[in-house]
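**Protein fold record**
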Amino acid sequence: MVPVVTDNHEQLPPRILVVDDDPDIVSTSCSALRSAGYDVWCAESAEAAMQCLMDRGIPHLAIIDINMPGVDGITLSRQIKERCDLPIVMMTAETDADGVVTALEEFAEDYITKPVELPVLVARVGRVLRRIRDFTYAVEPIMQVDQRLGVEFARCRALVDSREVPLTPTETKLLHILVRDAGRTVRTEYLIQRLWPLEEVFEDTLRVHVCRLRGKIEANPRQPKYVITVRGSGYRFPELAGQGSTDSVPLGSQDRVSNAVDASPGGSGVLDA
């Protein structure tokens, strides 16, 4: 299990969201993950899952059934990915090859077939979390960056000087990726591949979204405090107060760059240099 380090250096278990309309699968999967040491949230519909995100914040990984009545798992995963770069493992029937291919191409880091073998499920979750790397970003409903700025990722909005500022899905996801790697430089190529995995997008498009995001959250967009350009590499969000990670880099020191080694779903995405 990959522990999460909090602001006061306390190690907490990663938070896992399990979404399936079958209560038996939810119960057994959640029980197995809790026994493995994870903090598990359970939902039996896409609607309940989205409400959970709004009420409790962004978890560290989601396990989502593809074939659910009403809003299916593919649609739910797309809705989540509009708000954050959350790692997703899909659960699917063995006959649902098309759904698996779509999920892996668009957003999924991995998948597991039903009937679920619980040791395999636990192993897949651990593998994805290790591959994604450690992360110390807050997962509360409102991530308070400092006294001036807070972010509600699930609701696609920022709180700037206590004023609600709506963010587009792209702006929200961009901010989430940068915050997740706070204190590190995130390469331009990696950002483009995570924001637009199926599109041919160039750096100018990313710059436009960065400019618009700065205009919404920065006190002075010409001298940004939050979304900082690292010339020739990418962008960096400053290390969060009290983050205390030995891998992170405080402002003013030599940057460690997150390289886009394999930014596609299923890949490790970043590598510290």
